Amino acid sequence: EESFVGHIHRHPARVWAEHRATRAGRLVSVRMRILLDGGAYASSSTAVISNACSFAPGPYGVDNVRIEGLAVYTNNPPCGAMRGFGAVQACFAAEAQMDRLAAALDIDPVELRLLNALEPGGSLPTGQVLTGTLPTREVIRRAASLPVPEPEELPRDVLRLPGGTGNTTRGEGVRRGVGFAVGFKNVCYSEGFDDFCSARVRLRTDGGAEVHCAAAEVGQGVTDVILQVARRELGTDDVVLAAGSTTDVGSAGSSSASRMTWMAAGAVQLACRAALEEHERRGGAEVDVERVYRHPRTSPLDPETGQTTGERAHVAFAVAAMRAVVEVDVELGLSRVVWIGTAQDVGHALSRAAVEGQIEGGTAQGLGLALMEEIQTRDGVIANASFTDYLIPTFLDMPPVVSELVEEPEPDAPYGVKGVGEPPTVVSTAAIVSALRDATGRELTRVPVRPDDIVGL
């Protein structure tokens, strides 16, 4: 219960959007209005609405953009930073619009996205020109080329029907749908925030080393990244990672904003190289050095115009495309995600297994938002403050996830890495609901999609 009442949650949002394009499919105008419920306290609502507006049109080049964003106080529980940080809500709306536009123009949805894909040299609505890597077209092509599994025949094991043992139609009402979506998000802290990470290396006389970094390991694999970087830079496997604590080393910042791999790798790289130089200068004596890494400087957005006040408001971006296959029992309103195929811009993958784990975890969170997870409030009080009444995906709900890693090293990042944890969450909700629309023919403009929405009650 404490997790529900004592911690922030994702901002509920309402989004109004108008997309205009030529008959050939070229986007010429995007207008969006985004309203976020921030709850009773501001928390990080200002930063979340800024992100939502910055990425609202999606990874597409559009010459004429007008985005209005508003985060408001309400008597609901406070909302704040959550995986995807405003880009999730915007992507859900924008990708629904792209599907509708493709249908209105009678253009393949994938081809429409390829036609308008944002690439380096293009501009964001904030006026920032993309100077790093953003292989949007390659990501879209790789995701679209993944082979979709063949439909399963009926009858079949009831556990493989929408709703599992709760399905009473024996699959007679099952319809299959395929959806596609693309989304992107910034990497690391942005808009002038002083983003830094500290690392300390103690290099012994025998060549072994002890590394200190306060980066919080929350399942994303940053401890493996730290050890991998240290062993690579020091040229030895005799490296021990001390317990992360700011008692022994400076701050590493939070495990958020898809920043920890980039920032920790940069800090450990600097500290290792400094330790080796000092070790050699002192004739092989034991050395103990600490270094602080900062990514290239960013600038705030103008509060009146929304335009960047410097070269860039964001240091880098990552894009993902996803194809989802679902089955829906249109008589019962039950659904099942059958398969996910995704391609993601990962910069340079230090560990393929770790990247794939992040993609699968982010996809699971997006699936939860698409089909299950909803905090319900009445007069500002949470009505379902337990995991009995708040459903989250289990292993039985997760489909196979096929991942294609698109590697184009980011020039300003250590080893060319990018954070990979948030793009799957940004795009998966939009892709899954796109597939549900394909299966049902309904507009489905809110998430989570409930059985009542599917059967039309």
Descriptive overview:
The protein has a 4-stranded mixed beta sheet with strand order 4-9-10-13, with helices on both faces. The protein has a 4-stranded mixed beta sheet with strand order 7-6-5-8, covered by helices on one side. It is globular, with a radius of gyration of 23 Å. The protein folds into 2 domains: 2-190 and 304-455, Aldehyde Oxidoreductase, domain 4; 196-294, Aldehyde oxidase/xanthine dehydrogenase, molybdopterin binding domain (Aldehyde Oxidoreductase, domain 4). The protein has helices at residues 2-5, 45-54, 87-105, 109-115, 136-144, 222-234, 260-281, 352-371, 423-440, 451-455, and strands at residues 13-21, 27-39, 65-73, 174-187, 196-203, 209-212, 239-241, 287-294, 316-329, 334-345, 377-378, 381-382, 401-406. Strand 1 (13-21) and strand 2 (27-39) form a beta hairpin. The chain is built from 10 helices and 13 strands. It has 457 residues and is an alpha/beta fold.
